[in-house]
Amino acid sequence: MKIYNGEGYILGRFASIVAKELLKGEKVIVYNSEKLFITGTKSNILEKYVKRRAVKSHQNPEHSPKWPRRPDLLVKRIIRGMLPWSKPRGRLVFKNLKVYMGKPELVDKFADKEITLEKAQIKEGQNGITIEKLCSSLGYHIKG
């Protein structure tokens, strides 16, 4: 089992590393998913995800691609896009992925197994937006 803290990482690089671990047969837990970072200008990122959420099939809108607003589900969906989803193996390894917002109590038990990723860290001065801000712009609001 591998445990990753999403805070301070670039989403795309982080997700590709997690997808590779899943394909190797590892069980993966990601927490603080709302603190992952998407690089680029804020307006371009928002425009991209608003368009992506608006895609609907005219013949049967219920069978259109689903893009969630909730941060943990959005990260899970992005990682799913990096797996061979149309093959049985891709669907099987996707079940080994758990994504959480915040830090669950489960992680405290396995604190020694937490892994840091040098390749996916944010560099100083990089433009972008966190998943939390993106999701709140798409209409998700944390209750509480």
Q: State the helix count.
A: 6
The succession of helices and strands, N to C, reads EHEEHHHEHEEH
What is the CATH homologous superfamily assignment?
A: Ribosomal protein L13
Say what the CATH topology is: Ribosomal Protein L13p, Chain: A
Our Rg estimate from Cα atoms comes to: 16 Å
**Alpha-carbon distance between the two ends:** 31 Å
Q: What's the level 1 CATH class?
A: Alpha Beta
Largest sheet descriptor: 4 strands, parallel
Number of strands: 6
Mean pLDDT: 89
Question: What structural class should be given to the helix and strand makeup?
Answer: alpha/beta
Number of domains: 1
User: Are there runs of 5+ residues with pLDDT below 50, and where?
Assistant: none
Architecture, CATH level 2? Alpha-Beta Complex
Report the principal-axis shape: globular
Strand content: 5-15%
- Sheet with the most strands: spatial strand order: 4-2-1-5
Percent of residues in helices: 25-40%
What's this entry about, in short?
With 144 residues, this protein is α/β, with parallel strands linked by helices. It contains six helices and six strands.
Break the fold down into its secondary structure elements and pairings.
Blueprint lengths: L1 E4 L5 H13 L4 E4 L5 E3 L2 H13 L16 H10 L7 H7 L2 E3 L5 H5 L4 E2 L12 E3 H8 L6
Parallel strand pairs: 1-2, 1-5, 2-4
Antiparallel strand pairs: 3-6
Helix pairs in contact: 1-3
